[in-house]
Amino acid sequence: MTHLRRQSGFTLVEVVIAVALIGIMAAAIGPVAIRQFNRAREDATLTEMELIRIGLQDYFDDIGAFPAEGTGLAALISDTGDANWRGPYLEYTSDNPIQAITTDAFGNPYIYDLNPSTTPADATDLLVASTGVNRIQQLGDDGTWTLADVSQFDDLIMLVSNASSNRAKRAETEKELLALSLATKRYYYNNGTFPGNLADLAPGYIDPGVGGNAFSDGWTKGYLSSISGGGTPLYTIWSGGENLSDDGGNGDDIKLEIDSSTLAQGEAGQEWDWTVEGNYSLFLVTTAQAALDANPGLALHGKKQELKEYLNALGLSNIFEHDDWGKKLQINSDNRQVYSSGPDGKKDTWDDNIYTGTP
Description:
The protein is α+β, with helices and mostly antiparallel strands. It has 3 domains: 12-161, Glycoprotein, Type 4 Pilin (2-Layer Sandwich), CATH 3.30.700; 165-262; 279-355, no CATH class. It is built from 5 helices and 12 strands. The longest helix is centred in the first third of the chain and has 52 residues, at 12-63. The N and C termini lie far apart (133 Å).
């Protein structure tokens, strides 16, 4: 008997079915895989943009401005020649770091727009954008970035503004200027003259801080000072402000002036140890109390009120407004007593209040 042997392999029908199944699977899985791939690239771009934001803010802190449009993001990697450049502000392991920082995860160059035209107007100082998955700029293609439409397109937008950072640095600078001015007034009281340099205030009149940072503003630039006038000199202390440029106290400079004609001078040979907390407040209270005692006819209209209401009548300058802790000096009209509320800032807790005589 002869046996017929079946040949191994697939029939044409089986091959057709297999190809059809692969096609169906590809049609089902392909779009999902592509979406996942694009989402991964989008996430990578957003992560890089956040690192770029940090780098741009660090660059601004050093230079006082964002990179010019002609230089763009490359300024974060390549030395611009500015004396204050302390980069690189981002690190890349790529052989071409400039290309890496200026290109998104889709392989397209970032759009860098300094002082962009936006709707709403003046929404940001700087805009960095990726054209996203479709690689087509949809927002801002007419020259104005309509920020309300961001969610409607796949463009990825990053707004960079230094306003909040500058507000914090300005507040820090103003606080330090006040401390320097109080130290200068104490120096004048003891010496009858202003310091030649702000550094002369340390350590007797002000704590110089770590590395002398008490003499550096919020942008880590040194404070400046000058003396003008003749017999009644005017002392000016100022910061170059957010543009890091010395404008002589003008422009965006932050300055504080001390008029010697408003300052009280100590008695000859009298020294106060201003490093002892509360001594300045005691000096203010003692001097103001003597002025009030010399004016017994001055009417006081409330039980507890601020001394500043009577400075002009008593012939006192505005340095008598605040104590060591920034609180206003008070007068108790019942016994005509001037006092400081002390370290706790509470005028009704007399244990730490500073005054002369008995409460």
